[in-house]
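Standup notes
- HV: blocked on the assembly model, inputs below
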Amino acid sequence: MSGQDKTRATVDIYGQPYKIVGTESTSHIRLVASIVDDKMREISKKNPYLDINKLAVLTAVNIVNEYVKLKEEYEMLEKKLHQKEE
Amino acid sequence: MSGQDKTRATVDIYGQPYKIVGTESTSHIRLVASIVDDKMREISKKNPYLDINKLAVLTAVNIVNEYVKLKEEYEMLEKKLHQKEE
C-alpha cells in the first residue's frame, strides 16, 4: 500500500487474538497470520510437551531458517540474471 | 550438509537456552538464532509491555511477513530470468 496508510486487523494465532498494524493489505496480514498459525501447530505436533513460549520462539527459528535459505537462493538467482545481462 | 547428518547446537535466544537440531551447519544455526534474538529485542523495544509469549508470536509474524515479500520478489526474478532465456 502507498503512503502512510495503516491497516489494522485482528487475527487468531494458536487460539489467541493479536491486533496487527501494518502497511500491508488485510488479506496479506491474514495470510501471514495463517502461515504462523500453521507452523506453530506443525511444530507443536512434533513436540507436544513444548510450552507456548518456547513453541513460538522455535516457530520463529524455523521461519528465519527458511528465510535465510530463500535469501541465498534469491542472491544466486540475481547473480545469474546479471550474468545474462552482461 | 549431506545425508542424514544431524547437528546439535545450544543457542541463546532472548536470554533462554534452546537446543536446536538440524541438518544445517552449527554456524548457520547460530546465525538463525541471532537473527531471531535481534528481532525479538527490536520488537520488545517498540512494545515494552508485551509478555514474552506474545513477543515471540509477533516476532514470527514479522519474519513471515518478510518471508512472503521475499518469496514474491523471488518469483518475479525467476519470471524475468525465464523471459531472458526464451
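- HV (later): unblocked. The CA atoms of residues 12 and 18 of chain B lie 6 Å apart. Chain B has a mean pLDDT of 90.
- Next: hand off to the docking folks.
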